[in-house]
Write a structure and sequence with these properties.
globular, about 35% helix, Rossmann fold
Amino acid sequence: MADTWLIVGLGNPGPRYETTRHNVGQMVVDDLADRRSESFRAHKAGARVVETWLRPGGDKLVLAKPNTFMNVSGTPVAALARFYSVPAERVVIVHDELDIPFDSIKLKIGGGPGGHNGVRDVANALTTPDFPRVRVGIGRPPGRQDPADWVLAPFGADERTNLPVLISDAADAVETLVSDGLLAAQQKHHAPR
């Protein structure tokens, strides 16, 4: 359907991971569902979904959180895209990004995965990298800390103070992307804070 968007928050399943940096994409999708007083339900594609609207009479949103681990997110994303007949250009992937400072958001369509295995798996499953991405900055680890350990760790105390605003801003960016397009969303949400 031409008016349906699939908004996928990448992350890892289970309580062990829900507050980690790698799950910020799912936190954003949770915020979008909370704004609409909606609850996620199981879907046969291997994800939890909410079917809702951008606004009454507006585009339909399918908010999704895969039940798989981050690095194998592609299978449920592709299955949901097929189920809802959503083309890749309307599959918005919300994910954490090491190369963007914490408290910043960047949007783009296409390009390489930048070392993000979840994005790589989605691109492989959709057979194209040309899908919109809302990249939520988590910054690089301090010192010589392994990036794999960094993304799987909970946000620090200072980060947790600003995290609700970052998540809300990223959810706003998703809504702007859907309603006004990529360029308008970039112009509005790439501005330094």
